[in-house]
Amino acid sequence: MTGRIMPWLWAVALGVTAWGTIWALGFAPADWQQGETVRIMFVHVPMAWLAMGGYLGLGILSLMSLIWRHPLADLAARELAPVGAAVTALCLATGSLWGKPMWGTWWVWDARLTSVLVLFFLWLGHAALVRAFDEADRGARAGAILALVGLVNLPVVKFSVDWWNTLHQPASVTRLDAPGMHVSMLYPLLVCAIGFSLLFGAVVLARTRAAVMERRIRALETARARRADVPA
C-alpha cells in the first residue's frame, strides 16, 4: 500500500509546499510593524505545530506499543523521533531569528521558548533511548515510557503564553473567536502548514518503510545463517 501511496504523497507534498512558499515569500504583504521579518512566520509557525502534533503522534504510537505490543508502532516511533527533533530544532532556530529583531535578543528563558526547548530534548532523548539497548524491544519500551511521560509538556507549550506573562505573543491563528491575522497572511500560512505537514508525513512514512524492509532483510539473513549451520 505504501509503495502506491509514496509517489503521490511526495508529489502533492512538494507541490503544495512550493505553492505556499512562493505565495508566502513573493506575494504575501509585509507586516506593518514587523516588516519583512514577518515572513519567518511562514516556516516558524508550521514547524511549531509539527513539533507538538508530531509528539502527540509519538505518544499515540507509544501507547499502542505498550498496550498492544504492535511491532509496527515501535518502528514508526523509532523513525518519527529524529524527524520530530529536526522540525523542533527548526522551530527554535527560526524563533531565534525572529526574536532578534523583535525582542532585541536571540534567546530569553521565556516560558514558551523554554518549554519548546524541553520538547526538543524529549525528542532527542527518545531517539537516543530506543537505540541505546542491544535488545530492540527493551529500547522500544523505554522510549515509549519516556514519550508518554513527556506528553505532560504539550499543554505547557500550548498554554504557556496564557498561564504566564511572556514575551512570546499569544495565539493569533487558533483563537476560537477570530484569527488575529489578515487573510492575506493567514491563507499562505495555512498552505505552508499543509505542505510542511505532508512533507513531514512523507519523510516519516519513507523512513518507516525503509526500517520494515531492513528488518525483513535481517530476518532473511538470520534464517539463511541458521540453515547454513544445520548439518546435512
Provide a descriptive summary of the structure in words:
The protein is mainly alpha-helical. The protein has a single domain, classed as Up-down Bundle (Four Helix Bundle (Hemerythrin (Met), subunit A)). 77% of the residues lie in helices and 0% in strands. Helix 3 (71-103) runs antiparallel to helix 7 and helix 4 (111-129) runs antiparallel to helix 5 (136-150). The chain starts with a helix and ends with a helix.
Number of β-strand runs: 0
Could you say how many structural domains there are in total? 1
Strand residue percentage = under 5%
**Helix-strand pattern, N to C?**
HHHHHHH
Q: Main beta sheet, described?
A: none
Mean pLDDT: 89
CATH class: Mainly Alpha
- Helix count, DSSP H or I runs of 4 or more residues: 7
Give the % helix.
Answer: over 70%
Low-confidence parts, pLDDT < 50 over ≥5 residues?
none
The shape, in one word, is globular
Pfam families: Cytochrom_C_asm
Subcellular location: Cell inner membrane; Membrane
Main location: membrane
Membrane topology: Multi-pass membrane protein
